[in-house]
Design brief:
Helix content: under 10%
Distance between the termini: 74 Å
Largest sheet: 6 strands, mixed
Strand content: 35-45%
Shape: elongated
Length: about 200
């Protein structure tokens, strides 16, 4: 039988596998945590996994899988260069249960072995995967060289295209941008140019 670490209200037992029930949070930062996970297994639970600061949650080695929101709301947050990697030659799975399971990506990545663009885009379209809290910010791409589907978040909200003249980045080209432009008018930083002063 597989070994699991059952977190109940934040109390950890071991690290071979991890299951989260109760109102618990698992933080993975600056290290690699390899495990199978059940996030929110019972109807009274509300589990969260935060992966951040270069941390990696590695799911799939040894046939592990991940269930998020199995019986109650469950969430995985990928922040600040945190990655979740689902990569293994054995059987593995990712289940985001309808209305309960959720992955939110902010400056992190979800990497899944193989070409799963269709399935992952469908998850994003249904609101189970979001970027910065919005489904429209999710970018799903396939890297054939790595044989991985990579899901990231686009920081520019949909409908707010970057404007070349928007110097201060507020979404408008206006007098504030002109003032910033005028402040540096005719200034020069090319030290190799003898006309630059």
């Amino acid at each position: 039988m597989d070994s699991y670490c059952w977190l109940r209200n934040g109390v950890e037992a071991n690290t071979t596998g991890t299951g989260i029930i109760g109102n618990a949070t698992l933080n993975v930062y600056g290290t690699v945590h390899s495990a199978g996970l059940i996030v929110s297994e019972t109807a009274t639970s509300n589990g969260t996994v935060n992966v951040f600061s270069g941390g990696t949650l590695n799911v799939g080695e040894g046939g592990w899988g991940i269930n998020v929101g199995q019986a109650a709301p469950g969430r995985i947050n990928l922040n600040d260069t945190g990655n979740m990697v689902i990569d293994g030659d054995g059987g593995w799975h990712l289940n985001l249960y309808s209305g309960r399971g959720h992955i939110d990506i902010e400056a992190g990545q979800l990497k899944v072995k193989g070409d799963h663009r269709t399935e992952l885009q469908s998850c994003a379209n249904n609101g189970w995967i979001s970027g910065y809290g919005t489904a429209g910010n999710v970018v799903v791409a396939y890297d054939a060289g790595l044989n991985q589907t990579i899901v990231t978040a686009d920081v520019v909200p949909p409908g707010l295209e970057e404007l070349p003249g928007d110097i201060n980045g507020d979404g408008y080209v206006n007098i504030e941008d002109f003032a910033a432009f005028a402040e540096d008018w005719l200034k020069c930083t090319a030290t190799s140019d003898p006309n630059c002063s």
